[in-house]
Specification:
The chain has 651 residues and is an alpha/beta fold. It is built from 24 helices and 24 strands. The strands form five sheets. An eight-stranded mixed beta barrel has the order 1-2-3-4-5-6-7-8, surrounded by four helices. A seven-stranded mixed sheet has the order 17-18-16-21-22-23-24, sandwiched between helices. Strands 9-10-11-12 form a four-stranded mixed sheet, with no helix packed on it. The longest helix is centred in the first third of the chain and has 22 residues. The chain is elongated.
Length: 651
Amino acid sequence: MLRQENSTQRRLGKTNSLKPGDQVFVDRLITHIDFAFQPIVNIHSGASYGFEALLRGHVEVGLPSIQAMFDFAYQRNILHRVDLELKEKAISKFVEATKALGKKPGELKLFFNLDNRILDSADYQPGATPGILQRHGLPTSALCLEISERHENAMAQEASNLLAAYQREAYKLAIDDFGAGYSGLQLLYQYKPEFLKIDRFFISGIDADPKKKLMVATTTEMAHILGIQVVAEGIETEKELLACREAGCDYLQGYFIAKPSQEISKLKALYKHALKSNLKERRRKDPDKRLICERLGPIPTLPISTNMHDVFEAFRQHNAQSYFPVVDEENEPLGIVREKDLKEFIYSPFGRDLMSNRGYSKELRDFISACPIAEETADLNSLLTTFSMENAPEGIVIVKNRQYQGMLSAASLLEALNEKNLATARDQNPLTKLPGNTCINDFLLETLSNREKAVDLIYLDFDNFKPFNDRYGFRQGDRAILLFSQLMNKQFADEKAFLGHVGGDDFFIGLQDGTSALCEERVLKLIEAFRHDVESLYDTDDRMNGYVTSKDRDGIEKQFPLLSISAAIIHLPSGRPRLKGDLGSLAKLIAQTKSCSKKSPTKTCSALFKNGASKTCLHRKRDAKNPLNIQLTKTQRPSNDMVSIINNHLC
C-alpha cells in the first residue's frame, strides 16, 4: 500500500502523505470512478469539437451523489488531490478516445468540471495539471476547465478566484450553467472565458417560448461581442437545435446529439443527424456566407508562443498593419495584439531590449485584447449589431469550426451589407416587400435537391382581378394585393413557410415538413379570410349584388363575381425519387394545377406525388354549412412515375 501511495504522489507531483482513511478513499476513487463522455459539436457542421467528462461510479465509492463525494473530499482537506486523480483518469481516457477517432493531440477538447472550492482546499498546490498533460502528450489548449455559477453567493467569490487562477495558467475556461446562478455577468465582465454554457432551463422548449429565444439570443450576442463562444446545453429535439442556431449559438450538447457514453467506440467525429437538421436552414445563411468569405482580409496571425522580439519584428515588417490576430496551437483565435498597446515599449530607449529579455515577465499573452469572433455562416445583420456594440474598430475575427479564417473589417462589413441590401431590394416586390422570382427559384432548387423532407408548393392568384381594377382603379387594386399579402403573412407566420410574390396578383408559398391535410386547411382559411375582408373594398351596391359590371377582354359588358383566390397545391412527400425535370417544367405543372383549381367549388386543386407511381388531382366539394368540412374526390390516377409526371405535366 505504501509503495502504491508513493508512486501516486510522485506521478501527481505531490509530496504530502495522506492519512490512512483518506488513502483508502482515494484508492477507491482510482478503482471505481470512470468517466462518460458527451460530445460538444459545432452547431453548423455537426462535427465534434470536444467531449465533456461526466463522473460515473460514485455509488461504488460509497457515497450517494457526486456532490457528496466532493463535499467529503473538501471536509477531509484532500479536494485538490481528488481533483488531480480525476483529471489523470479523464485525460488518460480522453487521449484514448482521440486516437480512436483518428484525431491528433489537441485537435479535440476535453471539458472537465472543477469544484469551485479547490483553491480554498488545505492541500491545494499549483502547477500539477501541466505535468499530467505533458505525460499524456496533450497541449494546454486541449483542456477546457468548466467552472459553475450554480451555487449560492458564498461560492460565487470562489468561482471568481478559480477563474483568475487558471486563466493565468493559459487554460481554456468555460462558465457552466450560465443563467442559473448568481454571478455569471460579473464573471463574464472580469475574466472573459473562452466558452459560456447556457443552462438547460433556457434551452428546454426554446422553439416555442419567445422569452427564452430573446434571452438566449441576447446572451449570445453579448458573449460574441466579448469574443466568447456559446454552448447550448441539454438540446433534446431538432426544433431546439434550430432555435439555438437561429439565436446564434456556436456549439451544442445534449441527448439529441448523443447521450453520455462510457464506451469510447460509441463516440463519433461527426454527428450526421445534426448536419442534416442544419440543411433545413442553410438556404437562408449561404448568401451571407458568400458575402463574408469574399471580403475576408488575409491578415497573418501570431502564434501565442511568439516571443516579444518577433512580435516587434512582425510590426516592423508589416508597417501598415496596426494589429495582428493571435491564435493558439490549434489555430483558434485568442484575440488581437495592437501596435498602440506596445508603443510604450517600442518608443522608449530600452523598451524593446527589456521586452526581448527572457527574464522579463511580460509575454504576448499579456497584450492580447478581446475581439468579436463569429462563424463564417453568421448573419450579416447580427455581425453589424455585434460590431456596433464593440469598441474594437479593427473588425470581427471570422472562424470556420473555430479555426481562424481571416478578419472582416468595418469597411468590408458595410460593403457586404450594402450588396446584400441591394440584392434584396432588386428581388423584393416594391408593393408587398415579399421575395420575388429569384428567391422563389432558389427555394425550388433546394426543394428539388433535398428529397428527405416533405414540401408543399402552393401557387395562388386572384380571380376576376381585371374587372375589379377596371371598375375601381389601380390604386384600389394595389390595396387588394396588399390585403392578401398581409393575410398570407398572418396565416403562414411560421419559420417553415416561405412566402413569395411572383408579380401582379400571383403569389407563392413553400411549406416544409408540414402534413398535407394541415396545409390544405390553412390554404382554405386564407381563401375564406380574403373573400370576407376584400368585400370592404367594394361600394355598397356591388357588395350587396355580389358582382361588378365591367367589360371582358372582347369589350362585351358582363357581370363578374367579387374577388376571390385560386390555389394550386403540389405535395412532394419525403423520400421521393429524384426529380429530373427542370424548374420550367415544375412551374408549368403548377400553372396547369392552378387552371384545375379555378373549376373547383372551393378554388383549390391538389396534386400528390408518391413513390412508386401514382398521381392524383383532387377537387373539393364545399359543405355550405361548413366550408372547411371538405371531401376529396379522385379525378384521375394514371400509372406513371414522378419523373414522367413532371415532364408530361399531367393534371
